[in-house]
User: Fold these one by one.
Assistant:
Number 1:
Amino acid sequence: GAGVSQSPRYKVAKRGQDVALRCDPISGHVSLFWYQQALGQGPEFLTYFQNEAQLDKSGLPSDRFFAERPEGSVSTLKIQRTQQEDSAVYLCASSLDRQESETQYFGPGTRLLVL
Amino acid sequence: GENVEQHPSTLSVQEGDSAVIKCTYSDSASNYFPWYKQELGKGPQLIIDIRSNVGEKKDQRIAVTLNKTAKHFSLHITETQPEDSAVYFCAASMNTGFQKLVFGTGTRLLVSP
């Protein structure tokens, strides 16, 4: 079946531009996660949604980062006034429900380069 | 908060050899430890996981061991094949009511034919 999809796969932005990254989770998955993966590093947690509710946003680096999931399915991560340090791969993952030990299925990521 | 350390950062083996990757974690409340394989240009894919009430788990050529006392867990791959070449990440889940994964820094495994 269809896995997690993300778009665009690549994004080049000039410093100061706003960007929006989209995540389509696996159909029916309640939980949705965003991670940031810097070059040569492991993914780092950004934020978590249970359906449309954003229950944890403790990993968002600054108030320039904003995520939403208005209808409990598709999610968008928005970065305002992008900076060079925002360059990274942004990964989205979904899981069936919020219980611990539930497998997270990752999308291919969006590679963001800020010039 | 939780901190996960992973070693080695790179590992080169000959086809057919075994490979071992080790991780340590800091938060004794962590109770779920997955391992992910990431190929170039792709997202991480779960290959095996273990929970804190189990000491060892095996799935064909892959096994994971957990030592809760020492806060260590390890990935063992036997009879390695060139297609095992990838970056492997360990992770630990903080007990926050949902699966908030903290990842290690990754191990690049190269299996030479």
Note: The CA atoms of residues 35 and 57 of chain B lie 12 Å apart.
Number 2:
Amino acid sequence: AQSVAQPEDQVNVAEGNPLTVKCTYSVSGNPYLFWYVQYPNRGLQFLLKYITGDNLVKGSYGFEAEFNKSQTSFHLKKPSALVSDSALYFCAVNEAGTALIFGKGTTLSVSS
Amino acid sequence: AAGVIQSPRHLIKEKRETATLKCYPIPRHDTVYWYQQGPGQDPQFLISFYEKMQSDKGSIPDRFSAQQFSDYHSELNMSSLELGDSALYFCASSQGGTNEKLFFGSGTQLSVL
């Protein structure tokens, strides 16, 4: 069975500092990996995905994520955090043709 | 650009009542997914449709049913509502039966009293 874990409920960073939101996954085959962001009272917004190819994936709003097969991780990163990045971030995984499975979410709080 | 439209935005029902949630996908999207997100929880997959046929089924209770219509909009029908059904219900759409990039609606907040 496929699963995804986000070990941190909350990540706090100061504006301008780099941020990392962690995600590890478990699938039996080749993983499709995603990051979504959720702002209060809003739907989930797609940030980026890894299907195949380069391990470093660049997405929306300056975010990027690195696929590490040996560590089964797909951490979300941004070189310089903005206060407006404060939101709930979900990592998701699936295998081809199956529904997305979401992690529990990590609240990112960026202080000014 | 047009997005995924869900209606109603908010719905208040009492126990044992029924509710119908509607989802209008992005134009030319033929695939719809339904997710349930409880307070402080991650979204849980309920059911999906591709070309008006059920394509996958998740943790959808037997009290719930859904369908996709000829215009690709989808409706989630919920009967015998329970307090635990109170949640945010998201619909997402994509094209071609894939879920490589889902577009989510803003959700319907269902409160069961």
Note: Residues 48 and 56 of chain B are 5 Å apart (CA to CA).
